[in-house]
């Protein structure tokens, strides 16, 4: 359906509903409000403060110097697909062959392709919220309808109600989105929860779009979060979006992968061809290096996040006004502040008055009202300084 | 509409029609048949034999070394949007402000976004053919219906019949795709033709998706091809897809831009956010250098294409079996061979028996039957050697 956009100049023909309705990101509004402010501590985005390590950037520079600047393979170069396969097989303790992996322009592009495969106009996609706003964005653009399912904060833990999830399924449902560990809440599904969701998807013949990109950022002592890999067969209904952004500090590179049944390979190749036509070979070479030599760096990243998390939790205990479920995974604090109701306004004020950038919880859909999200994957001094500024700001307003 | 894919494993839920129907590229089939063959001269793809020049790659390497590896702005960094604006304003002799330019993952991504803005399910998009297969691919994925309008080869020139174009417009038509200079035919619209198409679009309130990426590769003595910029106002119905691939030998970098009415900026920013989330800053820095320092290199690229074109035309004259309209622009020869009807089979045989890679005309839609496409933007020796091999192969089969 095209829609006449009456506010636009007269030379603009009708615009498609799916494009018009793509929501503005509520994170971007605050980001743009504070972008470039001297001394601001930016905890609004999902990235740390470390640039990509030199051993990764050097590989890209060498590939460029060697003239690897021509068109490349749409599924990814074999070296990278093999390296991803080795990494994932090791992490999940089972053979995951290279044929399952498709290199994409970041996790976002993997989600776009997954949504195109599984859903579109007339279809419904269930998204537990609070959720990363880009899920809703991508499925709006695909033409599908989002069915938002607010999670509950119970006894200090976010909780996915499986009965309510089952009740949300209609004949039009095509996909359940599961993001565990969760951005923004830190909720990390147990194995039993994932297994139950998978059984539900099997019973109703649904796709699962699984975002497990924070799977190594967990705080309960395990090496990784539970995963659909622990329960699902290779040639079935799970589409996994993955990224190099978080583990290897490569947010700005725009490289990730889609993991899918190998039987969909031809279709996925075409969807890459007609959207981005592949990922630069020199970027893919750097990604191979990240996978093969990045473990020490990842351990350091996780350690930084652990310390940041502790600092936020201490601040919450100290002030007695900041409330949150201790995040089980990912690297965000999703918190309420007693006495602060309008979080969008407060996030803008925190930029101006405290020089700290946090994201308003309203950006993350139903269940996020009254919350803020901050990213603590930064050096301890900065996280401590930011929490101090927030505490000071709160004290001045109590 | 989702479709049960009966040939797939039982754990695969229904797949969306738009994804299933995305066509395989007929170029890729031949490419994969011959990929990696020793000594093969690859004229099947739209790229030259020169890697990206060092002054461009060096900029990317410097940006990487400086740690520019973080999330970036969705519309592109201001420096690049300003540099594109300066370049385009100079080329088209009119002010085109930075607000019109949106950095994308190559021209393909710009086309995907343009299609999402302007068309979708229930809509029709008119594509004159023979055409680059990715137009059809992108609009199939968007859910729109392609209305293919075969062009005519008349008196040694490809010809767009404006009466037939007007007759193809229905109440469902939303977009006319115009690719001039054309890949694959080399057809280059006159100013009068472009003006007539624009008037038609104005009359029926349609979008034009304009691919003018070969605009500087013209062979009639002008500095550039006629453009919709010569006739259309800034805030009206033309969406231009552009790329760094051809002028600056950056096919593998995946960077280009969408030029659109500035009033659509917020929408385009969201469509970038929910598909690729921007282009790497270090790639954008390299693109700035390309625009600011690339003119000598472009002149050389055009010179190479001119020589390649002459070699192909001489070969056609010599053999008396190769027929083509001398290409007015772009850098492809789209030719017929007397006595060769099954071009797909012949293209595969040319790989095996002559060690030359060309694309079968069938890949380019109605009007392409019986034709081959080859790219002559390579060094003269290789083009001459390839034509010699083709002539020899033909002679052995006559």
Please tag this protein with its features.
homodimer; 398 residues; alpha/beta; Aspartate Aminotransferase, domain 1; Aspartate Aminotransferase, domain 2; globular
Average pLDDT of chain A works out at: 95
The strand order across the widest sheet of chain A is: 4-12-11-10-9-5-6
User: Structurally, how many domains make up the residues of chain A?
Assistant: 2
Q: List SSEs of chain A in N-to-C order.
A: EEHHEHHEHEHEEEHEHEEEHHHEEHEEEH
Poorly predicted runs of 5 or more residues of chain A = none
Major beta sheet summary of chain A: 7 strands, mixed
The helix content of chain A, as a percent range, equals 40-55%
Strand content of chain A: 15-25%
Q: Helix segment count of chain A?
A: 13
Distance linking N and C termini of chain A:
50 Å
Using the coordinates above, name the CATH class of the largest domain in chain A. Alpha Beta
Shape of chain A: globular
Multimeric state of these chains? homodimer
**Structural class by helix and strand composition of chain A:** alpha/beta
CATH architectural arrangement of the largest domain in chain A: 3-Layer(aba) Sandwich
Query: What is the number of beta strands of chain A?
Result: 17
CATH topology of the largest domain in chain A: Aspartate Aminotransferase, domain 2
* CATH homologous superfamily placement of the largest domain in chain A: Type I PLP-dependent aspartate aminotransferase-like (Major domain)
Based on CA atoms alone, the radius of gyration of chain A comes out at 21 Å
């Amino acid at each position: 359906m095209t829609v006449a956009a009456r506010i636009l100049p007269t030379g603009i023909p009708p615009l498609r509903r799916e494009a018009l309705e793509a929501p503005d990101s509520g994170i971007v509004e605050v980001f743009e409000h504070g972008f470039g402010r001297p001394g601001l501590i930016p905890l609004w985005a999902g990235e740390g403060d470390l640039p990509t390590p030199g051993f990764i950037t050097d590989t890209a520079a060498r590939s460029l110097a060697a003239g690897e600047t021509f068109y490349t393979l749409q599924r990814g170069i074999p070296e990278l697909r093999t390296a991803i396969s080795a990494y994932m097989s090791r992490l999940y303790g089972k053979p995951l062959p290279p044929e399952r992996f498709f290199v994409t322009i970041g996790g976002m592009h993997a989600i776009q392709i997954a949504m195109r495969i599984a859903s579109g106009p007339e279809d419904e996609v269930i998204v537990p919220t609070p959720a990363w706003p880009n899920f809703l964005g991508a499925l709006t653009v695909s033409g599908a309808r989002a069915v938002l399912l607010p999670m509950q904060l119970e006894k200090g833990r976010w909780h996915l109600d499986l009965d309510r999830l089952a009740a949300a399924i209609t004949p039009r449902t095509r996909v359940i989105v599961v993001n565990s560990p969760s951005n923004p809440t830190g909720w990390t599904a147990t194995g039993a929860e994932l297994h139950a969701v998978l059984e539900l998807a099997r019973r109703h013949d649904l796709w699962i779009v699984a975002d497990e990109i924070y799977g190594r950022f967990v705080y309960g002592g395990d090496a990784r979060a539970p995963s659909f890999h622990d329960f699902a067969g290779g040639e079935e209904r799970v589409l996994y979006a993955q990224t190099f952004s978080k583990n290897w500090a490569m947010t700005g590179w725009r490289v990730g992968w889609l993991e899918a049944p190998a039987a969909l390979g031809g279709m996925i190749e075409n969807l890459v061809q007609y959207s981005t036509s592949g990922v630069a070979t020199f970027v893919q070479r750097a990604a191979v290096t990240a996978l093969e030599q990045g473990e020490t760096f990842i351990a350091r990243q996780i350690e930084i996040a652990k310390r940041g998390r502790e600092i936020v939790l201490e601040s919450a205990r100290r002030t007695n006004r900041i409330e949150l479920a201790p995040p089980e995974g990912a690297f965000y604090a999703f918190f309420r502040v007693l006495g602060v109701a309008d979080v969008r306004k407060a996030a803008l004020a925190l930029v101006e008055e405290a020089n700290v950038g946090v994201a308003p919880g309203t950006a993350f859909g139903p269940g996020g009202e009254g919350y803020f999200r901050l990213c603590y994957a930064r050096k301890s001094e900065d996280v401590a300084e930011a929490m101090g500024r927030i505490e000071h700001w709160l004290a001045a307003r109590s």
